[in-house]
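Retro notes (design track)

What went well: tokenization of the new backbones is finally stable.
What didn't: we kept losing track of which sequence belonged to which structure.
Fix going forward: every design gets posted as structure first, then sequence, in one message. First example under the new rule, 294 residues:
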């Protein structure tokens, strides 16, 4: 039986939608908790937050495209992102030569957390792009098959634009061999994120039409959740900015004011991350989005 089959009267036969909303709520709580000054360096709390976000992605993708669709997206996203990162480790393309300093489990020299971050941010970006581009977010047209991955890749890169200067220059989670550009993070890194995202979005778009469509129009609350995740993520830079450490930090021959890096991250979050999330959220309430019901 398809997991999205409905009982008479419109009730879901599975607890997945409720679980998805519940997990999203727990993720918001965990994110808020990790932004407290006493918790900013709590690695365990951040791991829980990441695990909840991945669980949300799995549940949300399963409701939209069935378990086969969720498995396809997860497999493609992880295979492409790890493949690109491994290739970059040897050849410095497409991100530029970089050394990963993150502790924990690695795959072919790449921290697992790096590949997982593409997945965690990739699905919300994909759903928002579907809402922005398509009149029916569940309908796959020829134009949508190629336009949606492009828009999704820009949305995904916006996530990286806000965080990477903090992650690389301040927290030293990875180190670029030739620091430049955005507070030590070179242009090649952001272009690399854009290319990587576009590749796995495009591969998924090419198989999307083979996946079972939703059993009926999905509710607005379902489509709204990825935008909520994106907006909350963007707003989480506010406490980082307000509690930014004093002093300077150096990468290579360049020296930056730490508070400026956190302020720039907040600017990027507001100017780059919020617009697509708000556009997707507003799109849900436009009459032409026929497959969304109250």
């Amino acid at each position: 039986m398809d997991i999205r089959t409905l009982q008479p009267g419109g009730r879901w036969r599975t607890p997945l939608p409720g679980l998805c909303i519940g997990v999203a709520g727990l993720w918001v709580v965990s994110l808020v908790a990790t932004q407290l000054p006493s918790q900013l360096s709590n690695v365990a709390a951040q791991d829980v937050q990441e695990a909840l976000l991945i669980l949300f992605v799995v549940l949300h993708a399963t409701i939209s495209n069935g378990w086969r669709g969720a498995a396809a997206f997860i497999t493609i996203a992880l295979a492409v992102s790890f493949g690109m990162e491994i290739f970059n480790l040897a050849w410095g393309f497409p991100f530029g030569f970089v050394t990963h300093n993150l502790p924990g489990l690695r795959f072919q020299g790449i921290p697992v957390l790096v590949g997982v971050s593409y997945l965690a941010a990739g699905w919300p970006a994909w759903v928002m792009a579907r809402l922005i581009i398509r009149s029916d977010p569940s309908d796959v047209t020829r134009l949508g098959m190629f336009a949606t991955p492009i828009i999704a890749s820009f949305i995904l890169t916006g996530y990286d634009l806000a965080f990477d200067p903090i992650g690389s220059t301040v927290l030293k989670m990875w180190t670029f061999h030739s620091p430049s550009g955005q507070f030590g993070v070179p242009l090649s890194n952001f272009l690399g994120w854009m290319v990587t995202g576009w590749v796995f979005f495009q591969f998924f778009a090419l198989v999307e039409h083979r996946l079972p469509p939703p059993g009926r129009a999905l509710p607005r609350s379902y489509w709204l959740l990825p935008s909520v995740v994106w907006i909350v993520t963007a707003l989480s830079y506010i406490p980082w900015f307000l509690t930014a450490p004093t002093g300077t930090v150096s990468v290579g021959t360049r020296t930056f004011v730490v508070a400026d890096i956190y302020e720039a991250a907040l600017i990027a979050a507001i100017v780059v991350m919020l617009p697509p999330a708000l556009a997707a959220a507003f799109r849900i309430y436009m009459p032409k989005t026929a497959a969304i019901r109250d």
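Added context from the reviewer: Helices lie at 16-34, 43-91, 112-133, 142-170, 187-208, 220-235, 237-242, 258-284.
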